[in-house]
Amino acid sequence: MKHVFGPVPSRRLGLSLGVDPVVPKTCTMDCVYCELGPTTDRTVSRCRYVDPDEILAELEARLSERPKLDFVTFSGSGEPTLSSDIGHLIEEAKRLSSVPVAVLTNGSLLTDPYVREAVSGASVVVPSLDAVSPEAFRKVNRPHPSLDPARIVEGLVDFTSGFAGEVWLETLIVEGMNDDYGEIERLTEAVRAIGPDRVQLNTVVRPPADVSAMPVSRERLKEIAGRLGPATEIIAPSSARALVDQQASTSERILEMASRRPITVEDVARVAGSSLAAAAKILDAMAQEGLLELVRQGQTLYYRSYFDRERP
Fold first, then answer.
1. Are the CB atoms for 82 and 110 separated by under 8 Å?
2. Tens of pLDDT along the chain (312 residues)?
3. Which residues pair with 183 in a beta bridge?
4. Cα-atom radius of gyration of the chain, to the nearest Å?
5. Does the domain at residues 4-236 carry the CATH identifier 3.20.20.70?
6. CB of 227 within 8 A of CB of 185?
7. Phi and psi of 176, rounded to 5°?
8. 291: number of Cβ within 10 Å
9. Is the dihedral of CA 38, 41, 45, 49 positive or negative?
10. Domain segments of the chain: what residues?
11. Which CATH number applies to 243-305: 3.40.50.300, 1.10.150.170, 1.10.3720.10, 1.10.10.10?
């Protein structure tokens, strides 16, 4: 499948079936911490990136297998609200299944009332807000030149006030970029104005697009959570052990995929929510451990289960 992936274990959404309505990597920002790698098409132009019938055919086929799910989640390889079909896709997802629908968005296009209306059919919307000052906004999010953080906050306020579902606001803190006390105070004021149901505080965990993006300490996250208010929860792994457990879960998912069919680096990047480079490192390590075997078919490299050599 090209546009539907998972279910993927998510720190926030449990078992999530991903739906990707844009092409890699199309986004309104080029965030330094993005685990999908650098943005290749930074745009604010909404259009049809993928035939919605193709997406829905894949979604219906996957749902027909009755996988265990907590959410159907619109996310993937870029900013999902750039798709002009996002509203239609959400409604059709609700028609195909009773599983709640979530939208992961950077929130930049919620300034547009048409976008707010389009995502209003979701059960949960998870927008991001990493910075309020223009300086920190440019450092962390590297946005399209037309984007203004003050307007984005206004859009989040307008959306939350009229949305019947839940808003889980995510804030990701990068050391030396948006972690100073002045910026945290500005974020605190914005959170009060927006009034989300939850604030999910995070830091850099997976390999980022820019190697300069470094995580803050657990202690600093706790300090910031205390300032952001009682609705704040820290979702970054609390220890190296938690990160190892998360990576182990990813490896198990990769082995399960490879037992069904040969897989590529691109397949793993989509499932793991990582950059291609990070996915390649995982696969190479698993091959070195004798868990996977590298094979070539035409011009494409595949990884298959080492114990299933009869597969073509």
1. no
2. 788 887 877 778 888 899 999 988 899 999 999 987 889 999 999 999 999 999 999 999 999 999 889 999 998 789 999 999 999 999 999 999 999 999 999 999 999 999 999 999 999 999 999 999 999 999 999 999 999 999 999 999 999 999 999 999 999 999 999 999 999 999 999 999 999 999 999 999 877 888 889 999 999 999 999 999 999 999 877 544 444 455 556 777 788 778 767 888 888 877 666 666 667 778 877 887 788 888 876 667 888 876 544 433
3. none
4. 19
5. yes
6. yes
7. 80, 5
8. 17
9. negative
10. 4-236, 243-305
11. 1.10.10.10
Q: Which amino acid is at 274?
A: S
Contacts of 103 (CB under 8 A, 6+ apart): 73, 74, 75, 80, 81, 86, 90, 119, 122, 124, 125, 126
